[in-house]
């Protein structure tokens, strides 16, 4: 009887559990149904076509190559012991980077050239999409090492390039149009997740923060800033030298630029794929328009690369329709050849071998573990972008525990809050033992007149950045090592090109107020350093 009673009491309990389970499942379905439109809206805005990721991968590889080629012109001057910034100066000026840069392992020219070649090979591998994530990681480490060796020549483009490469390597850059894709045999059309959200949010954070910082000034939202910026003769080049004669055009460009910056979140996160792609092309065109106008290094190209993930599936479908209407080379033989280069990637071979050995649970666990790591890293990077971006945009101080160099990686203040209304150039005099004074770097007589084109006073934009570091360290008894190293290098340059012995080198800085209406004031002359050779 006890057994019957216990059995009759247990029956309703089982039924009650089942009913509760059914009710909970119904509630979950109702919640999912209620929030499904929101989920789809978020998904549609942060989903990336893998062809856009492929183009971004190729662009990043090309940018790394272009950066190396540009730096190679001055590799001896800025990265060796025979140049203006030897290892002793680096270690004294930036002790916080000591031991962190592989490029600082030797000051010999051959060693730097070797590292440049290695970095170029990895950049080519990134373009090809071979072992994409590993190659991207090594490329990032080599880039950080190069930047750490001489921070004095860096500008905002260098910072944005390393940040963009960091965020991008968390996404499947090798999913399409890559050696990895050919060896893998399959490819997704689109991807979405925290990592893709971080990749899309990064340029939006750059533009939005810059728009807010510009609002603190007085010229951008008055329509005057572009005209002032292009009057900076040290940074204005080619086409920019001729635009000053059309003030109405400059004012229009000013308002277009501010609109693109301030409206980037609205324009680039539109759910309509065609409209979003159209705006992305507008941004890319605007950034590339900076190339023949102002000398800011790789900045226009890196900004354009950051916009590539916003090109949607509808854009690539339109490209395919154009391609299909024309005769294009058959790429199947190339794909067949690439399949012979190597076996399937290890991230595919390992799960397959586990499945064949009937260890499906281990294979699934490995896959889930890898995806979980990427998701966690994506969340961390996304929080880093948003949190530190907001800190700089609002001007708030962070707690001391959070005050790290990583904070500076999300500072985007190009031409903010206002463009400079003056520019500078430098003259390096060499006093010879016969009492004459010559130009230490170019030879011949010293001229202190305003140059007709101040941008030509610098070999590259990195020379201009380095001279700013020389200016900042000049006259400082404890931290003037950069100016002293530059002056010592100028002594050697002057001594090798003159008949007489060089006794002294003096570095002068000339500040010139920009001319808006064609009138110039007398430049202000400052002595940065006098150095006994």
From TrEMBL:
What membrane topology is given?
Multi-pass membrane protein
- List the GO terms this entry assigns under cellular component, sorted alphabetically: endomembrane system
Q: Which InterPro entries match?
A: HTTM-like, HTTM_dom, Sporulation_signal_mat
- The regions listed as transmembrane in this protein's record are 53-73, 109-127, 191-212, 252-270, 282-311, 369-391
Q: Offer one Pfam family short name for this entry.
A: HTTM
Q: Does the keyword Transmembrane apply?
A: yes
Localization in the cell: Endomembrane system
Q: Which keywords label this protein?
A: Membrane, Transmembrane, Transmembrane helix
SMART domains (UniProt xref): HTTM
Q: Which residues form the HTTM-like domain?
A: 45-315
Major subcellular location class? membrane
What name has this protein been given in UniProt? HTTM domain-containing protein
Q: Which organism is it from?
A: Natronorubrum tibetense GA33
């Amino acid at each position: 009887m006890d057994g019957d009673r216990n059995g009759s009491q247990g029956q309703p309990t089982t039924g009650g559990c089942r009913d509760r389970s059914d009710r909970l499942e119904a509630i979950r379905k109702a919640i999912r149904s209620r929030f499904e439109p929101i989920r789809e809206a978020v998904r549609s805005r942060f989903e990336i076509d893998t062809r856009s990721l492929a183009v971004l991968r190729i662009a990043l590889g090309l940018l790394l190559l272009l950066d190396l080629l540009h730096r190679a012109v001055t590799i001896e001057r800025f990265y060796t012991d025979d140049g203006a910034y030897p290892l002793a100066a680096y270690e004294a000026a930036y002790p916080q980077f000591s031991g962190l840069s592989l490029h600082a392992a030797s000051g010999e020219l051959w060693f730097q050239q070797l590292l440049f070649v290695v970095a170029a090979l990895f950049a080519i591998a990134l373009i090809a999409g071979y072992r994409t994530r590993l190659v991207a990681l090594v490329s990032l480490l080599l880039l950080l090492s190069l930047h750490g060796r001489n921070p004095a020549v860096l500008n905002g483009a260098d910072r944005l390039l390393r940040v963009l490469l960091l965020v991008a390597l968390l996404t499947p850059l090798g999913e399409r149009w890559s050696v990895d894709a050919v060896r893998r045999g399959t490819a997704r059309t689109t991807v979405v997740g925290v990592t893709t959200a971080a990749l899309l949010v990064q340029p939006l954070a750059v533009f939005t923060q810059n728009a807010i910082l510009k609002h603190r000034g007085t010229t951008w939202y008055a329509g005057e800033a572009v005209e002032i910026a292009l009057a900076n003769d040290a940074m204005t080049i080619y086409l920019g030298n001729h635009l000053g004669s059309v003030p109405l055009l400059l004012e229009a460009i000013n308002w277009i630029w501010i609109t693109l910056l301030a409206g980037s979140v609205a324009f680039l996160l539109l759910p309509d794929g065609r409209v979003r792609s159209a705006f992305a092309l507008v941004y890319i065109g605007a950034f590339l328009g900076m190339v023949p106008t102002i000398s800011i290094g790789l900045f226009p190209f890196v900004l354009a690369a950051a916009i590539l993930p916003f090109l949607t599936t509808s854009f690539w479908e339109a490209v395919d329709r154009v391609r299909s209407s024309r005769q294009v080379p058959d790429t199947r033989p190339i794909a067949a050849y690439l399949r012979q280069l190597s076996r399937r990637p290890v991230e595919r071979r390992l799960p397959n071998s586990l499945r064949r050995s009937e260890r499906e649970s281990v294979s699934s666990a490995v896959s889930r573990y890898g995806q979980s790591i990427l998701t966690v890293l994506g969340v961390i990077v996304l929080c880093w972008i948003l949190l530190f971006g907001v800190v700089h945009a609002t001007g708030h101080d962070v707690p001391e525990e959070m005050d790290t160099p990583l904070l500076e990686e999300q500072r985007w203040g190009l031409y903010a809050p206002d463009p400079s209304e003056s520019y500078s150039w430098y003259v390096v005099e060499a006093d010879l033992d016969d009492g004459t004074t010559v130009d230490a770097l170019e030879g011949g007589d010293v001229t202190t007149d305003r140059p007709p084109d101040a941008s030509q006073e610098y070999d590259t934009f990195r020379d201009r950045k380095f001279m700013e570091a020389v200016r900042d360290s000049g006259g400082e008894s404890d931290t003037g090592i950069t100016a002293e190293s530059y002056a010592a290098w100028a002594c050697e340059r002057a001594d090798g090109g003159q008949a007489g012995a060089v006794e002294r080198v003096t570095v002068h800085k000339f500040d010139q107020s920009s001319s808006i209406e064609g009138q110039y004031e007398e430049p202000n002359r400052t002595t940065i350093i006098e150095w006994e050779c």
